[in-house]
Predict the 3D structure of the following.
Amino acid sequence: MAGWLTRFRLQAAAIVVVMLAVALTALLLAGRGIADAGQFRAATIRAAAEVTAANDVLDAVQDAEAGVRGFLLTGRMIYLAPFQTGQARLGSALDRLDRLAAGSAWLAHALPELRQVSAARLATLTHMLDVAHRQGSAAAVALMHEDRGQAATAALRAAVQRIASHAEAMRESGAALILRSETRALMALATAALAGALLLGLASLALLHADRRRERLRAALKSEAAQLADTIEMVRDGIAVFDAEGRLLLWNRSFFAISGIDPALGVAGTPYARIAAEAAAWSPPLLAGPPPEAMGEQGGRIGEARRGDRAVLEIWRAATPEGGQMVALADITRRTQAEAIAGKAQKMEAMGQLTGGIAHDFNNLLHVIAANLDLMGTVLPASDARAAGRLKAARAAVARGASLTRQLLAFARREPLRAAATDAAALLRGMEDLLRRTLDADIAIRFALDDAAGRIGVDPHQLENAVLNLAINARDAIRARGPREGGGQIEIKAAEVTTASPVPGIDQPVPPGRYVRIAVSDTGAGMTEAVLARAIDPFFTTKPVGKGSGLGLSQVYGFVRQSGGYLRIDSVAGVGTTVALLLPALDETPALRDAAPSPGEAESLPAPAIAPPPAAPRSAASPAGSPPAGASPAGASGTGGLSVLLVEDDPAIAAIALEMLEILGHRGCHAATAAAARAADGPFDVVLIDRNLPDGDGVAMAGEFAARHAGARIVIASGSAATPAERAGPHCAWLAKPYDMAALGAVLRAEA
């Protein structure tokens, strides 16, 4: 656009210069014509004056002749008056001619002749008068009739005629000059007019072309502006551009939608100060102050700010080349939430791995403690009530530790679930009596169960434990808020929901789909943001020491995630909390409708059984033969027991297990690794394998040992429950850790 304007200005300037040159030429020619006309007028006046003066000379001489002739013929003096006036007139005419001769070389050259001829004629007339006075009129008349007077008069006439002819020639020459000048002026004017007309035509064509081009450029600019506006409008981020005076030039709707600024300010010319004032409540108020001079390494990004509604905005500000500035906003709330959720999911995954490992090791420690307590029970006198009470308290502590271990394994998702198609509404309705007995009488319990909700594929016992856990937490939250009229309320809901787009979860968004939502709400103390952020962390609790393990919500979280569902917690401090379990709804196929929980081992630590006391207990370290490398057999007190290959990497557990086998009357052979177990001499009636070995997995090796020791039964000792697929494996029986002598004896008797 700027280049086109420059070219148009140059063309217009060239046309103006040419027109001015033509006009100046015409003016010069016109001035020359005017000057020539003035010269012609002066020459004409001069010629007329010369002719008039020359004729006056001739007239004066002729008047003088007429006066002398009349005097001579009549003798009367009165006729001499013309002679006298003629002399005076002759002198005056000659004086005028003298003055005119000063400007004319030709006249100055011809004037002496005229003077001479006129003087000679006057001299002849004067002589005739003298003759008339002296000799009489007749003598003077005789002189008058002589040819000398006539010849002088003819010479005078010829001189006057030459002056008149020369003046006429000069006049005609001036007239011709004027004609030529006028012709040149007319030609110049005609040429100027034609050139002007041509230039005006060219200028008109240029203007018409320029106008059309300007219209095309204006249309192109309008189209580009519309395209730019449409493009900016389609940009998801908010954009606003301000000029050097801080006035709003360009913006899109997203700018006001994202920023939360009043859309009424979206008017061209709105001062930037008004926009910045609307955003002054942001934290921090990044729109205040001047824009950065340069874009910088991050392209003008100046940081992140939070709106009053907790939305997170990413903000760019940069100066424009014209001295204004551009502001761009992006709503990164979801991205920030997703990053936080992803970070929390990674943290929970890491914590799950950590707690799973801790639970496994802790389970082994409990196993040693429980087994030793069991063995101590076999040697303590039945009459020692004090020792029996302490033994009972120790066993109770071990049972509580085993329960905590199972909770940790559930959080780590290492506790297999026995999933079945479960009607959540029916299950919760069946828990009503249990919940009313468990919770305080002054707390109202309200159920809102939708019988039309679909079924879910979960472990029903674990779901009951999860709901019971949440109800107890709700009761404690109500008690933490303090006494109130009515005692507080707990509401338990179950309904099917369908999400069309991802919704927030505790650790990641819940994808679209059909879910059964089970929610436990209370009117308790609620949680602060800091507490809510750590609510499902293992061992985190706000309860006093000894009042909570911090594993309740973490166990619920582990169960929900292991079941393919999602957990969401909404809480307001001082108002209450809602914990919602979103579990995938099942398609109602016959296989799922008919599914039932698989049988499994007991969830709690079995009650210790008192085995018959042995004749003489032996140490598990006492060898009963020469074992292969890595294996150490233990003898048995009788010969009717079973031959048992114990594959256990923990020395303490192995020692106590061998002692239990000896007390139970069986023969034990210990292998610390899978390799040592493969090298052990058989045959064996039972192979008791720890599930987790340093060089192998007990479940994976079950088939191998069943084939190696024909007829032997395989028992897997594990701190976590078996999955239905694992239980269905060949030759497999399961022994839950920590186990006591009664549980060990029972599994061996079942295999006998």
Q: What stands out?
A: The chain has five domains: 2-209, 238-331, 339-411, 420-593, 631-751.
